[in-house]
Design a protein that fits this description.
The protein is an alpha+beta fold. The protein contains 26 helices and 35 strands. The strands form ten sheets. Strands 26, 27, 28, 29, 30 and 31 form a six-stranded mixed beta sheet that branches. A four-stranded parallel beta sheet has the order 2-1-24-25, covered by helices on one side. The chain starts with 8 loop residues before the first helix and ends with a strand. The structure holds one RNA strand.
RNA sequence: GCGGAUGUGGCGGAAUGGUAGACGCUACAGACUUAAAAUCUGUUGUCCUUUUGGGCGUGCGGGUUCGAGUCCCGCCAUCCGCACCA
């Protein structure tokens, strides 16, 4: 093939990208009458450079978007920037740059990087959450939710870093110390804004049932996060009084097994007692100090403090139980108090053994019905109720219902549904976020900023040379008059959690008027997102918040969409081999050389160790920069690599050999396009292959099984190369270019022109997906497997639809089969039409 | 601890209960070339025979079935998520 020039991506990529842009090829038409497809990948945080995970994510979405265009859809495939957040403030502190400038520079760089990959994106809808045109509308939505009673303010405990003077997220507290300052973190009470996501707990849970295009894993994670449980809330009264301690339990059936009541350190009763009990005060302090890491919790001893108080058992007021303050009871779940039934709860048992409390069996463990419970492993399986007066003999479920009914009838408790989900605290004491549009007035309280004063813009003149929230110490920004009474007042200086920004961007993509967040009718035309693609790390927070926000907007009548993402796909990571030297210092792959199974450091000749294949990370020096590989191989080879081999939900290992292979295939495809012969004649076998593969690739792309689609295209390429020139072969060549167009669009455009298919200057991006001739999908000859006792002995190629008796006869005529039967009696013969014959001896 | 996923050649992975290993990578051999690159043609699960064939093979042990990588039961390993949630 010396006479054919190579495909040169360094020229072709940019040329086609320019043409797509000039022709607005990928701008979505709101008024189109075609069926719609909204394809969305999770928008990136503008950290500065795109990484290979972005490339994989956006390539997948791009293939789907381009395929949908080719199959006659009006496609919305937008891109934007999740542009608020802490890294910009950290950069401001470290590099003395303004967060806005830093962020906008990063966006410009990353946009240029994305453009080099030739994604079919409607850039006219680009948005960045840090721009007032976006966050101003977010403020308006926030105030709508506020007006609807879905936003409130309450005192809440936060992690406070006393050096940086800021609130830290739980993830930023490491071993009880601030991740940046290293100072011990304090628990502080601050007034914080909350969104009432718990109002939607049941809806969000029930809604998961309708999301049948979501991974089960993600639905399950959300289900667990919402954490619905049902049980009894009841009061254990102080003797003789009406006051008492409210307790929530999912096991009311075990109430006769109770031996103590335990309350959280932060429980009001404990707090009150502690005011004149220094020992209890000290114990409470001790509880608060306890670590919150997984290891801490697992090894933490169950500790309690006997308050000396007793309470009456609701089912027998003469029976008094001691009240402990215990370190394993959480204030923010249920009522912050539990009754302990040691025989049937492991924590309670640990606690009871330590403090020598009674352990009474009330659920039979098989034949074990003795009220005295032995051992240190609680029995939590189903069983029959014993040692429980009138409940004896009931099942656990019967007893639960019975106790709840009794409690409700007698008025000391009621059945209750409890959720683990808490309201969403959205206050952040930071600069680089959406200002919360509220004004605090001494006289009027919290007053919403009037709509005509939105957006509340961030001030530009801020300093980051001292810790704390720059908005808080800005000399003038927070000083405003109350919109109601016009007295001096103060702006809220907290900003919104960035998860709020990402909770509605997909609506703004669908409709972006200047004067309101979105136009209802326009947004509803596109929504819900038909296919959402992103990392599984967002399985809970982002996806739950976005679902909540959409439901909240629906609740207040702003949009009639319940679930924002009809179909969700979570893609795997891109991994790469790691290397270390003898001292454990990480080495980049370019620093090492392989000789057989021995790895050496190129510079020094010292031995290197090939480590685990891990997610690309700077610290492990195994990153590959997308720009570098696009420089080297062009966009199409990189895109092809991202789609090949690994199923998209699994991790993909980057490899030099792999990308080389992709480069070779791009060239091979290019060479094929020069082989159009204008020969005549039909090659029926190739026609069949072509049409089978058209059908298969389409099915695979719709299922996001890109690795399988890629394999089928290879298969067709192999078949074309082996075929003799014919009209069929020329058609197959045109077809393979079309089929691969969503994956390698630059090459496909180039080839399309070369093939003369682009008469009139048409683009393959606008070309229709090839039609399948169903007749060609049906083989007229089939290969039938012949088994003897389930083992393959021979294969026969026969006409499709050959009658069973004839197939049987042919099978038995086979020498190999006769040899395998070896004269034995044939008990029966199973015939699966057109597939196989199994001779049973 | 709870929940979930995964386990197939040297590697990534294919396979509506019906011919296991498609397709790619690697490796090896050959062709072309002065040579290299590129390209092309083979071979590439394993063992025995080395031609015909045949045995064994989808983490392990059972089961259902004419037939199991696939379905059921019990283990093991790895990975992920959640976690003192009453």
């Amino acid at each position: 093939m010396t006479n054919v020039e190579r495909f040169n991506p360094h020229v072709a990529d940019a040329r086609w990208q320019k043409i797509w842009e000039e022709r607005s090829s990928f701008v979505a038409d709101d008024n189109s009458t075609k069926p719609r497809a909204y394809v969305l990948e999770m928008f990136p945080y503008p950290s500065g450079r795109i990484h290979i995970g972005h490339v994989r994510n956006y390539t997948m979405g791009d293939v789907l978007a381009r395929y949908k265009r080719m199959t006659g859809h009006e496609v919305l495939h937008p891109m934007g920037w999740d542009a608020f957040g802490m890294p910009a403030e950290n950069a401001a502190m470290e590099k003395k740059v303004h967060p806005g400038g830093w962020t906008r520079d990063n966006i410009a760089n990353m946009k240029a990087q994305l453009k080099r990959l030739g994604f079919a994106i409607d850039w006219t809808r680009e948005l960045a959450t840090c721009e007032p045109e976006y966050y101003g509308h977010e403020q308006a939505l926030f105030l709508k939710l506020y007006a609807a009673g879905l936003v409130y303010r309450k005192e809440s405990a936060v992690n406070w870093d006393p050096v940086d003077m800021t609130v830290l997220a739980n993830e930023q507290v490491i071993d009880g110390k601030g991740w940046r300052s290293g100072a011990p973190v304090e628990r502080r009470k601050l007034s914080q804004w909350f969104l009432k996501i718990t109002d939607f707990a049941e809806e969000l849970l029930a809604g998961l049932g309708s999301l049948d295009q979501w991974p089960d894993k993600v639905r399950l994670m959300q289900e667990n996060w919402i954490g619905k449980s049902q049980g009894l809330k009841c009061r254990f009264r102080f003797p003789g009084g009406n006051d008492g301690i409210d307790v929530f339990t999912t096991r009311p059936d075990t109430m006769f097994g109770a031996s103590f009541v335990a309350i959280a350190a932060d429980h009001p009763v404990a707090q009150k007692l502690a005011t004149n009990a220094p020992e209890l005060q000290a114990f409470i302090e001790e509880c608060r100090k306890g670590g919150t890491t997984a290891a801490d919790i697992e090894t933490a001893e169950k500790l309690g403090f006997n308050t000396g108080l007793t309470v009456e058992h609701p089912l027998d007021p003469s029976w008094h139980l001691p009240v402990y303050v215990a370190n394993f009871v959480l204030m923010d779940y249920g009522t912050g108090a539990v009754f302990g039934c040691p025989a049937h709860d492991q924590r309670d048992l640990d606690f009871a053994r330590k403090y020598h409390l009674p352990v009474t069996r009330v659920v039979a463990d098989g034949d074990l019905t003795d009220s005295n419970f032995e051992g240190n492993i609680a029995y939590t399986n189903p069983g029959v109720i014993v040692n429980s007066h009138w409940m004896n003999g009931m099942t656990v479920d019967q007893a639960k219902a019975d106790v709840i009914a009794k409690a409700e009838q007698e008025g000391w408790g009621q059945g209750q549904t409890q959720y683990r989900l808490r309201d969403w605290g959205v206050s952040r004491q930071r600069y680089w976020g959406t200002p919360i549009p509220i004004i605090h007035c001494q006289a009027c309280g919290a007053v919403p900023v009037p709509n005509d004063q939105l957006p509340v813009k961030l001030p530009e003149d801020v300093s980051f040379d001292i810790p704390g929230n720059p908005l808080d110490r800005h000399p003038t920004w927070s000083k405003v008059d109350c919109p109601k009474c016009h007295q001096e007042a103060r702006r809220e200086t907290d900003t919104l959690d960035t998860f709020v920004d990402s909770s509605w961007y997909f609506i703004r993509f669908a409709s972006q008027p200047h004067d309101k967040p979105f136009d209802r009718a326009a947004a509803e035309k596109w929504l819900p997102v038909d296919q959402y693609i992103g990392g599984v790390e967002h399985a809970i927070l982002h996806l739950l918040y976005a679902r909540f926000w959409t439901r909240a907007l629906s609740h207040i009548g702003m949009i009639d969409v319940k679930e924002p993402f009809a179909s969700l796909f979570t893609q795997g990571m891109v991994t790469h081999q790691t290397y270390q030297d003898a001292n454990g210092t990480w080495l980049s792959p370019e620093q090492v050389r392989r000789e057989g199974d021995i790895w050496t450091i190129i510079d020094s000749g010292a031995p290197a160790v090939a480590g685990r294949i891990e997610k690309m990370s700077k610290s492990k020096k195994n990153v590959v920069d997308p720009d570098d590989i696009v420089d080297q191989y062009g966009a199409d080879a990189v895109r092809w690599f991202m789609l090949s081999d690994s199923p998209p939900e699994r991790d993909l290992e980057w490899s030099e050999a792999g990308i080389e292979g992709c480069w070779r295939f791009v060239q091979r495809l290019w060479r094929l396009t020069s082989q159009v012969s204008n020969a005549e004649g039909v090659d029926k076998a190739l026609d069949r292959k072509t049409h089978q593969i058209i059908a298969g690739v389409g099915t695979d792309i719709e299922a996001l099984a890109f690795n399988k689609a890629v394999a089928k295209i290879y298969d067709l390429a192999n078949a074309i190369e082996k075929a003799a020139p014919s009209a069929s072969r020329d058609t197959a060549i045109r077809t393979i270019v079309t089929l691969s167009a969503p994956m390698v669009p630059h090459l496909a455009e180039e080839a399309w022109t070369q093939l003369g298919a682009a008469s009139g200057g048409g683009l393959i991006a606008d070309a229709p997906w090839p039609a399948v001739n169903p007749q060609l999908l049906v083989e007229d000859e089939v290969t039938i497997a012949i088994q003897v006792r389930g083992k393959l002995r021979d294969t026969l190629t026969v006409a499709k639809g050959l009658p069973q008796t004839e197939v049987e006869a042919l099978a038995l005529a086979s020498q190999k089969v006769q040899h395998a039967i070896d004269g034995a009696d044939i008990r029966k013969i199973i015939v699966v039409p057109d597939r196989l014959v199994n001779i049973v001896l």
